[in-house]
Specification:
26% strand, 3 helices, Alpha-Beta Plaits, 122 residues, alpha+beta
C-alpha cells in the first residue's frame, strides 16, 4: 500500500451449514481470485471455531445461526474506498461470479456485510 493511501475493508459474517463447508470453501476460493484480480490486496475467510452464543448479542445471534451451522467471519482488504468501489463493480459483472442454479450453499438473506475505514493497524 502507498503510504498516503487510506485502506478500506469489506467485512462479512454468515452462517454456513457445517455439511456445506467444502462447497463454501470452493466458492470462497473462486471469489478470492476474482476479488484479487480486480484490485483487492487480501481476502480472508475464517471458519468459526470458538464462537459462543451471547446472552444479548453475538456472532451466532447476529446471523440467526441454526443448529448445525457454523459462523464464518471474512474480510477483503482494499487499497482505498475508491479501489473497493471500482473493484466491486468489476467483480459483480465478472462472469466467474455467476451463481449456479443451486445458488450459494447458505442462506444469503442472513449474511451481514459492510465497508469500514481502517482505523488502526499494528
Amino acid at each position: 500500500m502507498k503510504k498516503d493511501s487510506k485502506p478500506y475493508i469489506d467485512g462479512f459474517v454468515a452462517a454456513i451449514p457445517a455439511e456445506n463447508r467444502e462447497k463454501y470453501l470452493a466458492i470462497a476460493k473462486l471469489a478470492a481470485t476474482v476479488f484479487r484480480d480486480h484490485g483487492a490486496l487480501q481476502v480472508v475467510e475464517a471458519w468459526g471455531d470458538d464462537v459462543p452464543d451471547g446472552e444479548i448479542t453475538s456472532f451466532p445471534r447476529a446471523v440467526k445461526a441454526k443448529d448445525g451451522e457454523v459462523v464464518v467471519f471474512a474480510w477483503i482488504l482494499w487499497p482505498s474506498k475508491e479501489a473497493r468501489d471500482k473493484g466491486n463493480e468489476a467483480v459483480m459483472s465478472d462472469p466467474r461470479m455467476e451463481m449456479s442454479e443451486d445458488g450459494p450453499p447458505f442462506d444469503s438473506k442472513r449474511l451481514i456485510f459492510g465497508g469500514f475505514e481502517l482505523m488502526l493497524e499494528q
